Amino acid sequence: MRIHIVRHGQTSWNAIRRIQGQLESELDDTGKQQATDRGADFRDMALSAVYSSSSVRTRQTTALILGERQEEVIYRDELREVGLGVWEGHMWADIEKAHPEMVELHRIASPLFEVEGAETSQDVQLRGVSAIESIIGEHSALPDEAHLLVVSHGAIMKTILAHYADVNLDVLHELPTLSNCAHCIIEVSGNERRVEQIESTPFSKTPWATADQLVPGANDNVGAVPTV
């Protein structure tokens, strides 16, 4: 089966680089259009199940992707964005100025990152992969041609994809941030998992395919702190 993982549409907080994390925010007009447009990918596709993060912005995105379709949506807290604790609600620019060392540890996915109430990249990857594996387990009897939709968030999606693409977290910041409403696909066959598509592009044609050649810190401009 194929698991289609889609990031939520743009919010006003994304646009101004305010830290969302697990706080609630809503899609802006651009985000609503992105989600509506993404719905075209699934218009003629039979979906065996639909899952969404329980956040407002992912709920809105899921509804717009589905449009008039009547599929039941299963909401999962485990699919929510990385928790950034006391940083949430602040502007990235202010946090970068006040805590540059800790921001850098977050950017490079260091396990030494420590902010009150926040998750490390290792924490969020474990949570995200566990959620995906749970979903796979619940639908293990589906045929190979089945499709599942999962709507989630940029940072957690990136760590999930890293796990299945065998990309180390310490080079993840060298890869481009997933754009709003990015559509990625993980193919599941028995115990095998393969990342088939990232950002609507075949995996082999993305920078992820050669990530094992990346050197941590080699390109500090690519992996700027995302607007999570």
Question: How would you portray this structure in words?
Answer:
This protein is α/β, with parallel strands linked by helices. The protein is built from 7 helices and 7 strands, in the order E-H-H-E-H-E-H-H-H-E-H-E-E-E. 31% of the residues lie in helices and 16% in strands. It has a 7-stranded mixed sheet, with helices on both faces. Strand 5 (183-189) and strand 6 form a beta hairpin. The longest helix has 18 residues, at 121-138. The two termini are 29 Å apart.
Residues in helix, %: 25-40%
* Cα gyration radius (Å): 17 Å
Strand content: 15-25%
Q: Could you give the distance between the termini? A: 29 Å
Count of strand segments: 7
Q: Return the string of H and E elements.
A: EHHEHEHHHEHEEE
Q: What is the global morphology?
A: globular
Class computed from helices, strands and strand pairing: alpha/beta
- Overall mean pLDDT stands at 94
Q: How are the strands of the biggest sheet laid out side by side?
A: 3-2-4-1-5-6-7
Q: Describe the sheet with the most strands.
A: 7 strands, mixed
Instruction: Enumerate the spans where pLDDT stays under 50 for 5 or more consecutive residues.
Output: none
**Number of H- or I-type helical stretches:** 7
